[in-house]
Amino acid sequence: MASNSGNMKGFYREKKPTTAKKSSKKSPSNAATLGSTAAQTPALVSDGGKPDLKDEYDEKETLLRQFDLNMAYGPCIGITRLARWERAQRLGLNPQPEIQSLLKSGNVQTESLWGGRI
Amino acid sequence: MATRMERVQCSYGSLDETFEIRKEMFHGQQYSQIYFARLHLMRTLLYSLVPHWKPNFPVCTVLELEEDKECVIVGTLYKHMKLKPCILDEYSKQKSVVPLVKPHNFMHSDDYLVLEDESGRVKLSGNIIPPSEYVTGIVVALLGKESGAGDFLVQDVLDAGLPPQIEFPLKSGEDKYVVLVSGLRVGSSTFNPLQFQLLVDHITGHLGDEKDKSIASKIVRVVFAGNLVEIPQRLLNGQTLASTDLTIMSDPIRELDILLSQIAAGLPLDIMPGHSDPANFSLPQQSLHGCLFPGSSAYNTFRSCTNPHCFELDNVRFLGTSGQNVDDLEKYSDAKDKLEFMERTLRWRHLAPTAPNTLGCFPYTERDPFFIESCPHVYFVGNQDKFETRIIKGLEGQLVRLICVPKFSETGVAVMLNLRDLECHALSFGTNSAHNNAE
Fold first, then answer.
1. From which residue to which does any coiled coil extend (chain A) (predicted)?
2. What is the pTM of this model?
3. Which residue of chain A has the CA closest to B30?
């Protein structure tokens, strides 16, 4: 069996699909995840092989990321930042009011820093 | 000659709202959220109890533990189980090291408990907290100290205890009965139509002498605690069904509808979905739709309820499930009887601690519907092997009647409870000549 497959390898030329080809085949930007209606945000490592690490983010995002990582308000995965803030408020955990005003203002990311990556 | 008898009336209030899934939506949330909600809720409660329990010890989080410092920690228990089936085992290359000895129970002497909070987790040691009695998902307060090995040596355990109870209504002196039935399994091989017809005739007052009828007239409600029908497994394979198979599939429900409408014509009845019923799988199971029961749902006495089901009859509070919570506890822990499992869930103040770990559960984000806020007067669990009952008392004078309702299709036993004094007895029906109809 093993020798057989060796022969086959010799017969057909092995060919590795290149990454460029792969990316043209499927586009994960509109791949649906279970139960999610929104389009998926790009994965940590996108298809081009370039890591999608947004190193530059402003002060607002820094504050929001600190809020995301504060375990006192519960897990931040699978819940929007605003919903998480409101839950903390309802549970009497006194989250910072600035966070809410930031989130209400609009031009910030609504999902947590892991949003769409898990 | 026959005298006309009026059926006794009773006030009814449904408290199923907490178990109804209305506004909750699934948008990719994970189960960590429900553990967070549970821990937050229970920890607030336990923190209020700790000053009375151990006034002289500091309370800290898992991260703040120091070696040999005696303190109180509060967190969620996780039971590490060697034999617990894991979905990933299917993909692992190694064969399972330990074969399952008893497939219905996954306990092993190597099991150990871990306590978790947001900050971290710590392995528990000492024989104060035996792993066999506890399961994953309970929130407790522990007194102890960190030992050299990095374990937390437990010296004392505090669980939330029986919740506060509303006052038991003043004795009216009038007998009022509630009948609890479970596991009818219409459509299964064990279902005996004659046996159930005897029950129907008995509670609607069509059977027996004047004395039997006067007792029957005092039955104020019948509750069916799950597993009403059984649909043949071979039809549930996801394939398109032939029209004959469609009829076979809906036959049990149609038959049940005919039987239930006989009861609904005479007295109020509640039905709860169970494991084998055509409802959602995960707890809380939502009520079966009325259109499944076109005959009986036409009566205003017919109520389709959730599982778990909570209601009040003349201010006597009932709480019950179709049995999944206790059946799951039995797989992952140990007790001398089913009633002990029931008692533990009340003392832990949690109806189904193993959800979502080993019991299907809706992924709530903000609340834990299984938290028992108020202590019921009657706590019943359906689909058990035999009829068992006991009264337990709490430290603050709470009094709870625990009832294991047996599977009717296998035992022919229903349970009759008196609302006046919470006394209860079995109603046993047999169709063999060796038995009598109603005892």
1. none
2. 0.82
3. A78
Using an 8 Å CB-CB cutoff, list chain A residues near B30: 75, 77-78
How many residues are there in chain B? 439
**Cα(B342)–Cα(B334) distance, rounded to whole angstroms?**
12
Q: Do A75 and B30 touch (CB under 8 A)?
A: yes
Given pLDDT bands bounded at 50, 70 and 90, which one contains residue B39?
Answer: very high
Contact B119 A71 (CB under 8 A): yes
Q: Which domains does chain B have, with CATH numbers?
A: 12-23+165-428 (3.60.21.50), 32-158 (2.40.50.430)
The pLDDT of residue B174 is 84
Distance CA A15, CA B291 (A): 59
ipTM score over 0.85, yes or no: no
Using DSSP's 3-state secondary structure scheme, residue B204 falls into helix
Residue B302: strand pairing partners? B269
47-86 of A, contacting B, C-beta below 8 A: 71-72, 74-75, 77-79, 83
Handedness of CA B217, B219, B223, B228 (dihedral sign): negative
Sequence-separated (6 or more) residues with CB below 8 Å from residue B33: A74, A75, A78, A79, B363, B364, B365, B366
Mean pLDDT of B311-326: 92
Residue A87 is nearest to which of B28, B118, B365, comparing CB atoms?
B365
**Tokens of residue B31, six digits:** 């189960």
The one-letter amino acid at B37: A
